[in-house]
Amino acid sequence: MRRSCVVAGVLQALLLFGLPAPGGAQGSALSGYMEIHYNNVGPQDPVLDFHRFVLVMSHGFTPRIRFVGELEVAHAIVEGLEEKGEVELEQAYLDFLLSRSFNLRAGMMLIPVGIINERHEPPVFNGVERPFVDTVIIPTTWFEAGVGAHGEIGSGLRYRVLATAPLDAAEFSAAEGIREGQQHGSEANVRNFAASGRVEYLGIAHLTVGASFWTGDSSFSLRGVDSVVKVGEADARYHRGPLELRGQFAHVSITDADRLNAALQRQIGISPNVASAMRGFYGEAAYRIWNAGAPRDLVAFARYENFDTQYRMPDGYVPLKLYDRDAWIVGTTYYPEPDIAVKVDYVRLANQSGITKTSHGLNVGLGWWF
Amino acid sequence: MKNSWRLLLGCVAVLLTMLHGSAVQERRVVRISAERFSFTPSRIELAVGEQVDLVVTSDDTAHGMRIEGTDVDLTIPKRGPGEIRATVSFDKAGRYEFACSRMCGAGHNYMRGEIIVRESADPR
Predict the structure, then answer these.
(1) Is any Cβ of chain B less than 8 angstroms from the Cβ of A159?
(2) What is the DSSP string of A36-95?
(3) Residue in B101, B106, B110 closest to A91 by CB
(4) Any idea what the CATH number is for the domain that residue B45 is in?
(5) Which of A14, A42, A277, A352 is most buried as measured by Cβ atoms within 10 A of its Cβ?
(6) Cβ-based contacts of A205 with chain B (< 8 Å)
């Protein structure tokens, strides 16, 4: 209650005293991105999937009060009660741009954890699908409603901090980790707020290094359980000439996971085997073979990923090797135009179980930004 | 007599060329690279009255660069051989922010920088 009053007070003060003088950059704009995929990986039949159709709306009330909204249709069609597509309001916020070093944001926002969550337009990353670590360990696209601040200090030190609705631990699982725990700002329970943040340093030529965190009490829907989730992440990107390197490490810890499993077992009949710790990392090297600009613009890349959603189990639970996975992805990204990416990659996805087979196959994708 | 006039005109031409050369040398060129979602460098320092040529390129999509308190609002062409140039100077010391003025993705509003204009004739 007190925190809400502080935020409301700050916003009211801005309106009362006014923001710095405007100077252009007003009006509305429509942009967006789309990606269609052919996936032929594993024992399933190949699929052709219009994976994402995303419209980005922006409007400048003044140059320093801006709206950004992102509406996504995933998997092309949404049908009632069927596990098919989704319509998601991934972003819908107002930015109050006070100064380069301090700005306020409120609404539906991207959680600033990891490389991909805030940089997910198809021409920005290699590979038809987003990295596994950014899907299974960090639940990209991770978005929630809340308030926050962001800015840049000096020559390249950036920060953002958010207070948002927490994850719901009742939706955690062995295979997908914390992914399904997102409340997505839909009548989200905010008995507790979650805190997240990121610092990024861009002051060294060609290099970006970042670290981020998320923490929140996520057991609000389960009586007698006190599960606090903490996500820690570190990443680096190096880009010089035709060479680009990137790496990321992410770790998730969940306290009181034994009582969380017991409480969920009482509800659904079986234990979801939620881990007390999950971990993932990846490294990627990419080289621009054709570096003359479109239409002679071709990147080759290779990425290794290692991720385990049962890295540590609570006492009395045995980790299943099925969830200790690693993957090699090698492929190319061709840019006939800087905002259009034609992607082809080969994926080899393995696990440590020795029972389930390694899956491998081909992905082809076409993505664009406008 | 004719030769004297020729010599005088030649000297004037050489002098003008030298003066022009020194004026060109005084104008500093600052190269800025834009990419989702940053300008590099994001902080530029110059002196009051100093004329600076900004040369801006993009490493990915098209961006904008609007400098607050000026009429400068550049459209930076997409990755490729293209670049945009602008000559700027400031007659008052202070801090002038610049930002991407063309929606470029989820981190668009993070894409900002500043120009520090100092009284000193020797900007750091």
Answers:
(1) no
(2) EEEEEESSSPPEEEEEEEEEEEEEEEETTEEEEEEEEEESS---TTSSS-EEEEEEEEEE
(3) B106
(4) 2.60.40.420
(5) A277
(6) 40
Q: Is residue B93 part of a domain?
A: yes
Cα(A169)–Cα(A259) distance, integer angstroms: 11
Give the range of the structural domain holding residue B65, as residue numbers without chain letter: 27-118
Residue B22 lies in a domain: no
- Contacts with A100 from chain B: Cβ below 8 Å: 97, 112-114
Give the model confidence (pLDDT) of B66-123 as tens digits.
999 899 999 999 998 899 999 999 999 999 999 999 999 999 999 999 999 999 755 5
- Give pTM, 2 decimals: 0.87
- What rounded mean pLDDT belongs to chain B? 84
All residues of chain B having their beta carbon less than 8 Å from the beta carbon of residue A68 are: 108-109
Name the architecture of domain A25-369.
Beta Barrel (2.40)
Mutate to test the interface with B, among A19, A26, A31 (most CBs of B within 10 A): A31
Number of domains in chain B: 1
Which residues 6+ apart lie within 8 Å of A341 measured at CB? A122, A123, A333, A334, A335, A365, A366, A367, A368
Q: What is the pLDDT of residue B17?
A: 52
B94 lies within 8 A of chain A by CB: no
SS3 A209: strand
Distance from CA of B69 to the nearest CA of A (A): 7
Contact criterion met (CB < 8 Å) for A100 and B37: no
For range A288-316, the mean pLDDT = 94
In a domain, B69, yes or no: yes
pLDDT for A10 equals 45
Chain B partners of A110 at a C-beta cutoff of 8 Å? Answer: 106
Structure tokens belonging to residue A69: 């909204």
Q: In the predicted model, is pLDDT for residue A6 greater than 50?
A: no
Closest C-alpha to A24, from B124, B65, B95: B65
What are the chain A neighbours of B83 within 8 Å (beta carbons)?
none
- A326's tokens: 């690693």
Identify whether B87 is part of a domain.
yes
